[in-house]
Amino acid sequence: MTKERFWVVGGEYSCLAFKTLKSGAPQVMGPFETRDEAKAAWKRVSEETRACATARYAIAAEQLVLPA
């Protein structure tokens, strides 16, 4: 049996190529039990950083294999 968890990952990058984060490590939020919860967090952080052209966030999914 599998279960999916969701994370919001991102931060402020050093340039518009979005290859290197300024802080070196991504900001990670979660885990969220549903994609809708993750989407709400992504929307909130995206709105907060709207004025920063080098900020980018994404939703990542994690597949967990649960013991039977």
Structure, described:
The protein has 68 residues and is α+β, with helices and mostly antiparallel strands. It contains one helix and three strands. Strands 2-1-3 form a three-stranded antiparallel sheet, covered by helices on one side. The chain is elongated and about 45 Å long. The model has no long low-confidence stretch (mean pLDDT 95).
Task: Give a quick summary of the entry.
The protein is an alpha+beta fold. 21% of the residues lie in helices and 41% in strands. The protein is built from one helix and three strands; from the N terminus they run E-E-H-E.
Rounded to the nearest angstrom, the distance between the terminal CA atoms is 7 Å
Major sheet: size, sense and barrel closure?
Answer: 3 strands, antiparallel
Task: Kindly report the CATH topology.
Answer: Alpha-Beta Plaits
**At the first level of CATH, what is the class?**
Alpha Beta
Q: Taking all residues together, what is the mean pLDDT?
A: 95
Number of domains: 1
Strand order of the largest sheet: 2-1-3
Cα-atom radius of gyration: 14 Å
Question: Which architecture per CATH?
Answer: 2-Layer Sandwich
Structural class by secondary-structure content: alpha+beta
Molecular shape: elongated
Order of helices and strands: EEHE
Q: How large a portion of the residues is in β-strands, by DSSP E?
A: 35-45%
Provide tags for this entry.
68 residues; alpha+beta; Alpha-Beta Plaits; 3-stranded antiparallel sheet; 21% helix; elongated
Question: How would you summarize the topology of this molecule?
Answer:
Blueprint: E1 2-12, E2 27-32, H1 35-48, E3 55-65
Antiparallel strand pairs: 1-2, 1-3
